[in-house]
Structures are given as structure tokens and as C-alpha cells.
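We emphasize that the prediction below concerns an isolated chain of 198 residues; any contacts that depend on oligomerization or on bound cofactors are therefore not represented. The input was used exactly as deposited, without trimming of termini.
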Amino acid sequence: LGAKMLASWLCVVCLVLGSATAEDVCVVGYIMDNFCIDRGTLLDNSGVKTLEGPGEHTIHCLVDVRQCYDSGFEVLIDPPSGTYCRGFTLDSNGNSLVLSRARATGSCSTCDSPPNAPSKGFRATIKGTMTAAPSSRNSPGTIEVTSVEDASVGCGGSAYEHPHCSADGGGSDSGAARHRIGHVLMVGVLLLAHSLIR
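Result of the prediction step, given as a C-alpha cell string:
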């Protein structure tokens, strides 16, 4: 009975560790559709490499062209220089919120097109829960989005730092490290609980 009780407590600890790997994050960056990322150049401007010139990406391409908006969206992380880093793949809620925000504030066929609305380079402030950290400059993490706001809203000094998007290509790896440690601890606790139950 004692071993089973201890195993039960260890399972509770495992659940707590699992929830601890999730982290609330805030990111400001260009929003890009996965179709244009995968093709390597902008669909609406094939002379521009997608991760080098996201500011040239038209909002028309982003939210009017079905193959683009159906592919889902990512938020790109601004680099110190050069190629932009792939930050996070948005979930279905984030995709819907991006469509609504871009159409409400941009200039395109399906947009409300308010006065002086931008026609390209859609940027936004993305907030949500990180479910996986980016594993490299070109391997985005995932995020469960809670809000999509104007880029001007910002993150108040607490913007997510991409662990692989610094000037030297390295940078702070604290977010990814926390996730790896959490998963390792979870596996260890589960193995210990299993051995006690047997």
C-alpha cells in the first residue's frame, strides 16, 4: 500500500511537471503563411526570398489567396540582421484571429481597408501559451494563441527571446532548456512510479 501511495504521488508530480513545461509568451513580428514559407519566395513577389523580405509580403496574398491562408500562419522573429527566424506556428484559433485582425486593419480585397491601411508587411503582437519551443532558426515552435493585437501593442519588455536567433546564431536557450528538463524529469518520475507499482 505504501509503495502504491508513493507511486500515486509521483504521478501527481509528473502531471505538475508536465504543465510546467507550458509557458506564456508574447511575440511581435511579421505574420507569414506556411505556403509562402515552404515555397521559399513570396507568391506575390517571386524575386523576394520569404525569410529575407517579409515586409514585402502583401496582405492580399496573406488573407485573400486561399492556398496561402488555408496553409496556416507563423509569426517570424526579427533577427539582429539578415534572415528572419521562424518563431511559432499558430494554432487554429491563432489563424482565425490573424485573418480577422489583418482584414480589419489592412488593405486587400477582403479587408475593411481603413484610411492609410497598410497593403503589405503585416505585423502583429501574438500572445499565448508555448507548447513547444523553436528547435532551430528554421524549426518553429508551437503556440496556443489567446490574442492577436496590433504590433504597436508590444510585449512591454517581456518579448520571447528565440533561443537560436541572436547575432551569433546561438543565444539564450533557457526556454528550450526548461522544456527539455521538464520532459526528462517527467520520464524519470514515470519510470520510478512504474517500478514501485511492480
